[in-house]
């Protein structure tokens, strides 16, 4: 039983690397080859629309499930101390947000407010929550990495990616709420959104890589 639990935790650590890699590679490739799709001007979630939308829907679900699996390794590694509670709650909530963003697809960009659907509104709410949580989660774990000698090797990466994710997220949030700015930035809104998502995904990957390294060290 102990050996089985150990194998599960190793898989959970690897999920932290597999999940973000698969998610980013899938939406980048699909955005590149999808006819009529402009990754610079359209959200990642817009890939869930149309005949090929099932690819991005599954991509959301798989990433959410793998990120949740990764949280199990984090829970085992950080049973107490900084980030052991709120870090885990935040990352688990992000996993759930991505998971349910799959079946609850967004409405097409530019849909009038009176014509929005339940699933489109729910997708928007989930997205807003996830985007707020992503940079906050990075900084919550950065505090742990600062104070934990075993994890101090990740504090530099975490700080740099946290600052980048937060800065672009704030800019993305501002322009999304001001119509004149949203109009002026619309040709680049997809690129700006990816500027929030990709740093977070890199951080999850680095965290997962660090987890596999820590697990190999003698207890």
Can you give a write-up of this model?
- With 219 residues, the chain is an all-alpha fold.
- The protein has one domain.
- Helices cover 74% and strands 0% of the residues.
- Helix 4 packs across helix 7, helix 5 crosses helix 6 (179-185) and helix 5 (155-177) packs antiparallel against helix 7 (189-216).
- The longest helix is centred in the first third of the chain and has 32 residues, at 2-33.
- The mean pLDDT is 92.
Count every helix, treating DSSP H or I runs of 4 or more residues as helices.
7
Summarize the helix and strand pattern as letters.
HHHHHHH
Which structural class do you get from the secondary structure elements?
Answer: mainly alpha
Q: Which stretches are poorly predicted, pLDDT < 50 over at least 5 residues?
A: none
Distance between the termini: 19 Å
What's the number of structural domains?
1
Mean pLDDT: 92
Gross geometry:
globular
- Largest sheet properties: none
Radius of gyration: 18 Å
Record field, number of beta strands: 0
Percent of residues in beta strands?
A: under 5%
The percentage helix is over 70%
Summarize the structure.
The protein is mostly helical. 74% of the residues lie in helices and 0% in strands. It contains 7 helices and no strands.
Write the layout of secondary structure elements.
Elements: H1 2-33, H2 53-77, H3 86-101, H4 118-147, H5 155-177, H6 179-185, H7 189-216
Helix pairs in contact: 1-2, 1-7, 2-3, 3-4, 4-5, 4-7, 5-6, 5-7
């Amino acid at each position: 039983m102990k050996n089985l639990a150990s194998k599960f935790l190793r898989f959970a650590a690897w999920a932290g690397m597999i999940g973000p890699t698969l998610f980013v590679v899938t939406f980048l490739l699909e955005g590149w080859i999808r006819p009529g799709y402009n990754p610079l001007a359209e959200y990642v979630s817009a890939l869930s629309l149309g005949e090929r939308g099932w690819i991005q829907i599954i991509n959301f679900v798989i990433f959410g499930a793998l990120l949740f699996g990764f949280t199990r390794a984090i829970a085992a590694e950080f049973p107490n101390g900084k980030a052991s509670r709120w870090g885990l709650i935040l990352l688990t909530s992000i996993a759930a947000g991505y998971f349910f963003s799959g079946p609850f697809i967004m409405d097409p960009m530019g849909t009038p407010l009176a014509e929005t659907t339940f699933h489109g509104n729910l997708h928007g709410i989930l997205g807003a929550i996830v985007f707020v949580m992503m940079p906050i989660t990075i900084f919550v774990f950065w505090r742990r990495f600062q104070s934990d000698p075993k994890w101090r090797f990740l504090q530099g990466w975490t700080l740099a990616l946290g600052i980048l994710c937060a800065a672009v997220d704030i800019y993305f949030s501002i322009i999304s709420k001001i119509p004149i700015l949203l109009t002026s930035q619309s040709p680049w809104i997809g690129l700006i959104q990816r500027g929030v998502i990709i740093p977070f995904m890199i951080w999850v990957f680095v965290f997962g890589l660090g987890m596999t390294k820590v697990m190999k060290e003698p207890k």
